[in-house]
Amino acid sequence: MSDEPANTKPTRQRRQGPKRSETSQAAILEAVRDELAESGWRGFSVDNVARRAQASKQTIYRWWPSIGTLCIDAALSLIPSAPDGARDAQQKIAAIIAPLEATARAGAGNYILRAALLAAADDEDAGEKWRGWIKAEIRTPLRMILAELAAKQVIRRDWNIEDAMDVLLGPIWHRLLVMRAPIPEAFSLRQAERLIADLKV
Amino acid sequence: MSDEPANTKPTRQRRQGPKRSETSQAAILEAVRDELAESGWRGFSVDNVARRAQASKQTIYRWWPSIGTLCIDAALSLIPSAPDGARDAQQKIAAIIAPLEATARAGAGNYILRAALLAAADDEDAGEKWRGWIKAEIRTPLRMILAELAAKQVIRRDWNIEDAMDVLLGPIWHRLLVMRAPIPEAFSLRQAERLIADLKV
Amino acid sequence: MSDEPANTKPTRQRRQGPKRSETSQAAILEAVRDELAESGWRGFSVDNVARRAQASKQTIYRWWPSIGTLCIDAALSLIPSAPDGARDAQQKIAAIIAPLEATARAGAGNYILRAALLAAADDEDAGEKWRGWIKAEIRTPLRMILAELAAKQVIRRDWNIEDAMDVLLGPIWHRLLVMRAPIPEAFSLRQAERLIADLKV
Amino acid sequence: MSDEPANTKPTRQRRQGPKRSETSQAAILEAVRDELAESGWRGFSVDNVARRAQASKQTIYRWWPSIGTLCIDAALSLIPSAPDGARDAQQKIAAIIAPLEATARAGAGNYILRAALLAAADDEDAGEKWRGWIKAEIRTPLRMILAELAAKQVIRRDWNIEDAMDVLLGPIWHRLLVMRAPIPEAFSLRQAERLIADLKV
DNA sequence: TATTAATCGAGACGGTACGTCGAGTCTTTAC
DNA sequence: GTAAAGACTCGACGTACCGTCTCGATTAATA
């Protein structure tokens, strides 16, 4: 799960032995989610996960290089994909962060996502994995939309992607991590609106 | 340290024996800072702190109710007070968050502040303590300034303090916690500018 | 228990902190005995001992340098002291090995002693500890008696202590370890008789 | 394996038919011997054997009912057959235990034989297998010789085979298992002499 | 001045978790 | 049908930490 070798070589692979057990991995991820929701990041324990999932610790350590990446995987498996049907720029931008907010709004998702974010901030491997996801799912789509808007001269041309990320994502972290406050309705739309206003010519 | 003597009772105090050792507490806080900078939040251990500070674990547990609050105290002891000399509204707002950014920009401060924020997000007690500090040092001053601006009709009247906090603080968390990215120069000024622009009539 | 520091220095010892818990150590030794009797040497596990004794593994590892020495201690605590009242040479010699045989004859003692002997044969530390006991409790007394007999010209003068140990102890190991056969009555007397006959002038 | 010595070690063949692979079994036994010599009985592991022998664990468990019997087989494959050319009774008896002593005297043989004996003492199956070997190779020949001597009235008629085994084998165990002491030259002859003397009319 | 209560360091204690290794079983692929 | 490879569950390994407790020594206010 963490890293697929992807079988790049077209040569015959002489892998003998059984394949990875899918049911076991699913049970582990579910147990990780439960454990994160209950115990947070520091209280999280691999022993408990193994107990819950009826899996052996060996199996967990075999497939994930570190505890942190395990937590990130578990959280990512919870985040839905972006909704379709956006018509204007604001809706398109809002759609990018909508999955994050939907997860943060759900009862268990709130706890799980928070704990996974702590893992990403505390653990080197987890951080890289999480930032990889952010880059692919948030930064790249956002850049495309902003580039288009800049081409149409809707926004100014000297926009900076990192600044835009600050404006778009920062408020989510503030509510989710720092204040533990609920995220109101239409939050993503409001952030998108702010971002566009901030970049107006 | 966590809570001031609380001497609520005005009745006769039968205090016998030595007072709290200031040198020991200072050594503990310093050790906590070093430990947080080195090991992060999950890797943080009271045993190591006691070892570093040449203190007994009992002494630590006597004065702090939980590990998390200990970490918050250690981080707060690092944050300088707000600078004076602000003339306009933007500078005043920027001055509120300047101490946070200065700490986040320093080498060790970056690690310590991040770890303490994780503590606040992961631990109930630590969270309350941290949010208390935020309320006193950020939210209240900010509200006063914004109220003044609204009275002068510089900003619109339906401003919301939580939204303002989102805009002002969110970008810091994004850089510090999520991206582990450096915080550029004049960051606080830029956020203050954004906030005022966002609230313009 | 394993090694007494013996406090050779008459100077004041500035050991601070609590002392070793005697009840805990006794519970551990009893648990070790039970575990050895049930599971033998290879099946012996420190985890089980800790569970049985309601002790933490740390406490066990704090006071015993290795699993093997722990087992030897537990077995030695079971061996009674040599009986008195021996009149002739044969009875004196028999009295030396009588405690071993009594232990080997008892139900649980049989299993415990066997397992501890395996520990001594398999583990370096345990072996040294066990051979130290053998030397002090068997070899030295035996040498004194034989020297006396040689002086009285009851036995010949070119006797060798290691050969004598072979003759006196070997049969016990054969019954206890190799054959798992019961040790008959008056076994120690018979071995003593054989030894004297073997060394006759 | 369980019975055949299989001491020949031809070059490894990659593929075997539905028959049992002799080369694999030989490699396993050799690996067991190395492992026993290096790690003793408690430290012995099937995983290591499989790794060393490039064999699958399944293959090991298919052909041996337990770890202990595997060790016994490995040790037995090391014991040479009894030497010929004995003329008198003492030499005949000595010839019976000479293979054991030769093995115990060899460098690796010493370690392997000791570990296998521990297996026999600690493990039920291994014990039965080992005592079966003892009965066939030691007890039965010894009984025949002693019966002959008794018929010739060289020894007395009320001899007991178990007592004789005590006397003949005990010293070996004492040296090999308990004292870890070297076995001197002509040791078997000396034990045989003692046994005959002990049984003299 | 002697008593006494609070504090300190050191560290033992029962527990839980760490990350690794081994036991014994099962599954997949190759021959 | 046998073999190598290796994944699986379970549990032990020896170490580290948690939070509590006990021990002497030290210190300052009270008697």
DSSP summary: helix tally of chain A:
9
Supply the CATH class of the largest domain in chain A: Mainly Alpha
The two chains with the largest interface, and their residue counts, are:
A-B, 36 and 36 residues
Q: Could you report the average pLDDT of chain A, rounded to the nearest whole number?
A: 92
According to CATH, the homologous superfamily of the largest domain in chain A is Tetracycline Repressor, domain 2
Instruction: Please give the alpha-carbon distance between the first and last residues of chain A.
Output: 44 Å
Structural class by helix and strand composition of chain A: mainly alpha
Q: Stretches of chain A where pLDDT falls below 50 for ≥5 residues?
A: 1-13
Largest sheet of chain A: none
How many structural domains does the protein architecture of chain A include?
2
CATH architecture of the largest domain in chain A: Orthogonal Bundle
Coarse shape of chain A: elongated
Oligomer: homotetramer
**Number of beta strands of chain A:** 0
Question: What is the fold-level CATH name, i.e. the topology of the largest domain in chain A?
Answer: Tetracycline Repressor, domain 2
Please write the string of helix (H) and strand (E) elements of chain A: HHHHHHHHH
What does this structure look like?
The structure is a homotetramer of 201-residue chains. With 201 residues, the first copy, chain A, is an all-alpha fold. Chain A contains nine helices and no strands. In chain A, α4 runs antiparallel to α6. Chains in contact: A-B, C-D. Chains A and B meet through α6, α7, α8 and α9 of A and α6, α7, α8 and α9 of B. Chain B binds a DNA duplex (31 and 31 nucleotides) through residues 14-21, 24, 45-48, 50, 54-59, 61-62, 67.
